[in-house]
Amino acid sequence: MNIEQISVRVSAVEQVAPTIREFTLRPLSGELPPFSSGSHVVVEMPGAQKIHRNAYSLMSDPWDTSEYRIAVRLQEDSRGGSRFMHQSVAVGDRLNITPPANMFAPQWEAKKHILIAGGVGITPFLSYLPELMRRDADFELHYLYRGSQTGAYRKELAAELGARYFAYDSDAAERCELTELFQQRPLGTHFYICGPLSLIEGMTGLAAEFGIPASAIHYEEFAAPQPGKPFEIEIRHSGQVIRVGEEESMLEALEAAQINVPNLCRGGVCGQCVCSVESGEVDHRDNFLSAEEKASGRVVMPCVSRAKSERLIVDIQE
């Protein structure tokens, strides 16, 4: 990565749900950079075979820069990152992280904020809550989880938020009636969604049916790159050819070849890593490029997208 990194030490590790661990990160010296509600950092994890880099939301109060807190869910189909955090990271370990970046900030002009979290998607909202309460903002938190797997912090949230907190444990057959959230909204309400893709697609689809403008719907999904058939990248100006394996992303293969590509989210939403395509067929898997840009075949987001052809020739200026 070409972003200056920050070295931190793990000062605490806590199991906060059956599949979720919380990590407290403190600076080796001084204070950490300030951040805003909804920010994330990318954590670098030196595995045995490769370096993993995953984005995690900051859960701390933005007014407190003495430490950062993140939470990591152990994914059943982990590509190595969440498994590394759960199995290899202990108190006292040193990690490298990027400075905070924010692509999921609250819209402070909203008349009301409705926060909808699915599972570990609760994490960005934990940095929203202190600021929402300081501003005496009108808000609700709707938390969907499976008590046997996720549901971290639910007791603390219920105690802190009172009537502004709504919980739905699918293991107890508790359902959130999403249509009611849209029907009962006052004018000027903004919706924020963080969770699995199915929740995001369901909410955005319903919002369109209710005529809610896209500018009032905000969501965040840090999707891990999905595997696919191997292919090659050719760097146009140098002729260098790099092989992308079945389980690695284009971005990871480029980084392993010491080719720096700017990036912030590594999940296909920020647009920082976009590259020009000279030839080859792209398998677009991002949520950033427009339909027209994808149809053109002239650009690619290497953090999540792949190639349908055996080789992509891309233009990357180092």
Task: Explain the overall architecture.
This protein is an alpha/beta fold and 318 residues long. 19% of the residues lie in helices and 32% in strands. The protein has helices at residues 81-88, 123-134, 154-161, 178-183, 197-209, 250-256, 291-296; strands at residues 6-17, 20-27, 39-46, 51-57, 68-73, 94-97, 101-102, 112-118, 139-145, 165-169, 189-194, 217-220, 231-235, 241-244, 275-279, 282-283, 299-300, 306-307, 311-315. Strand 9, helix 3 (154-161) and strand 10 form a beta-alpha-beta unit. The protein is globular and about 60 Å long. The mean pLDDT is 91.
Helix content: 10-25%
How much of the sequence lies in strands comes to 25-35%
How do the helices and strands follow one another from N- to C-terminus? EEEEEHEEEHEHEHEHEEEHEEHEEE
Which residue ranges are poorly predicted, with pLDDT under 50 across at least 5 consecutive positions?
none
Summarize this structure as a short list of keywords or feature phrases.
single chain, 318 residues, alpha/beta, 5-stranded parallel β-sheet, 19 strands
